[in-house]
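Q: Predict the bound structure with iron/sulfur cluster.
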Amino acid sequence: MTSVDSKFAELDELLKKKTIRSREDPRDKSSAEKKITSGLKTIPVLPEIKDESDEKTLTTFWRNLRSFYRSAQGGGIKGSQLFPALLSDYRDMMHVRYDYPVWVPDEAGLAENDAAVLSLTELLNNALKTFAPSAQDAKILKDNIGRLELIVRESIDARAASVVFTDVMWPALQKLETQLKIKGQDGKTFSEDIQKLKSQLPQSGQLLHFSHESPYWLLSAAIRVQFHRSYQKVKEDTVVLRNKLDELLRIENQKTPAANAPETLKGSYGYGASFINFDKFSNVIPESSSEMMMPQRLTRIEKIVTILRNIDSYFKYDSVAVIAENLSGSIAGNWSDLLAHSSILIADKRIISSEAQNAFEMHMKSMSEWLSAFRIARLEVEGKYIPDIHDAYFSNFDWRAFTEDEMALCPPVLLITPVEELIMHNLTEFSRLLASHKPIKTIVIKSDAEIIHSAKSMAQDYFSFPQELGALAVSHRNAYVFQSTTIHPKGLYEGYMKGISGFSPALFYILSPRDESGRNTYVWAGAALESRAFPEFTYDQRRGVQWGSRFNVEKNPQTDQDWPIYELSFITKRDQKSVINVPFSFADFASQDVFFAEHFFDVPPQYWSDDLVLFADYLKMEPTEAYSKIPFVWMVDQQNMLHKVATTHFLVLYGQERLDFWHFIQEFGGINSYHVDRAVEKARQMLLEEKTKEIAGLNEAHNTEIEQVKQSTAREAMEKLSAILLELDSLEVKPAVKISAAVAVTEPVTQKTAEPQAPEAVEEEEPVSTEPWLDTIRCTSCNECINVNPNLFKYNGSKQAYIADAKSGTYAQLVKAAEKCPAKCIHPGIPLNADEEGLDDLIKRAAAFN
Ligand code: SF4
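A: Predicted complex:
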């Protein structure tokens, strides 16, 4: 069984078991298409924790672990044995559908395909859509498109970074047909569909494999497309202008006496000349009545026509590339293959920035000559060339006078250099280059080796911060800065396209690992992005005057979080499934790298305790809290068993530094911005103060009103009650159990009195409520009345008190509650129980509240 066959078998098995799983990055729409067909058959398993260690062994182990944390001595893991748990799906990339290989057009492909960069998946899907739009069309082919991709991937894996598309695709289609061996009518249909697919796929172009060189190949594609588009346009415009100028010169030529000479006429009539007597004809042709063109103008037009005619010599190259000499070994082939149609200058790494500036000046001199000719040509054709103005203007014409569109026409000047060289030997020159505002486009590829170099410097120099080239370039304010990784080829291509033309200097700072230590470089680069080890951002000063408007950090995962958080599913030994949220931190990224191996310690399950804290959580702890803890990350082994792997203090410091840089990037993008948060808090405080003042004013007015009402009501009530009491006293009447208003007051009088009372005296009395009542609307919910008798007083739905059942309490409780009520909203009325003790005193006390 071949390797491909065995992959098919695995793939079929996986498809049958429907183990297709996906991890979708919410910010990256393209990743929604990346269905991950894991090569692993099970989800991670949590080991059973057996408490077998005695106290002494446990103490010794933890003492050693804490010592490891501080000293980085005594640890170490083997990358091949343990893998970050959150990346377990990516251990076998052959089964993962991702954006590589990617198709890019060559010269011929530019004309036949609008899209400039397409993943293999997109390319195949687009082609299928054209001839098999419905689900049932080309069903067998569609069902096996993943298989076809696998064959293509297998066949380009061992090759160079770039291969000719048809060299790989046509044999792959043939191989698919052979592998499937479909017979009968289905086989015939399948073969026809293969041919249709073939006719819809590009007939040229290249397939780029994911490699360290991918950023260069994508740069080359971007330049090719950019140049093709601008050159086609400028060439068409030039031909039109040149024809018009030629016509001007021809007409001018006809104005000369020599134009009417017999020999000149004879020469211009060709075959017809044998029928004409040119001596006589010359005599009868009138001399031109127009004025002759000024000699200076004639010379000027002849000169620009010559320049325009030579357009190909001015636009001979797609770009001018100045490349550091020590980069030659970093690519498999030659720069002239990679940057075909570019003028390439290999320069000494120590003077590369100044070499790029020299190359730029020379290139711009040539472009100024051509563009001034182009502009003069236009003015001449329109009759708008004014020597007094334009002679001086064009004699000093240089690149600074170009328009944005004209600059975009010019093949760019590229500076390609390694990051360490730039930082160590050329930083001042590079800074000068950016400050000069010359639109030189610098391409710096950072590999895993440079990340390790930074880590080593950090380790040696316990605690130097890495120099962030992207951030340094941003500080110049005028440069287009694009920091990205090579895992998103389309994003990379678009970033190039935005920055490669135009007036701004540009820095393309791209992370692209090498496959040197056997690590999975695609996963490594993706993890660098996820873990904030190398965050992506774009700074484009053309996007706005306000600083914040120039930044875009959206390509990073979960931009509002410190670390992106993903679900980690696992099963326990007892087959119970569980899911936990796990942040993907810098330590998870570092755990893949052999350089950091000694900073990890695999803690056996019997020693797991609450003192092992997730790395991301550990970083948030106060030192006093973190003191006794050890940070760890989740990893899985070859059997998919989960491990808690402790880290060192060095990694904690490194993680804190990366987090700090991430916060810096976040703030650039307006996320968790200190200033925004402060402004929001200030606005909130102002609003709160305003509302507090408003409420205080309302309360004051309300209290004044209450006081006024209370005083007048109390006075009136007192007067009325006194009058009633005096009257009752004289009649020896006991209070009624329940009396309603005026009627209740008058009835006993009529019963007990022999002589009727003067009706007018009763009619003059204001009706007084003698029932207890509570002005609920004024209640402040202070609980005082409820505390006196919770059955008598209760709260309504708005937590304001009311008298729930007057019979469930005594008159004494009513009076007591009225006295305690701060809102003075309880009115005891008159006693319901005439036999209650101490009524005389209570009625007097109640008078103030009735
Ligand atoms: S004592 Fe007055 S203010 Fe307090 S809860 Fe009772 S009714 Fe409301």
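A: The chain has 33 helices and 26 strands.
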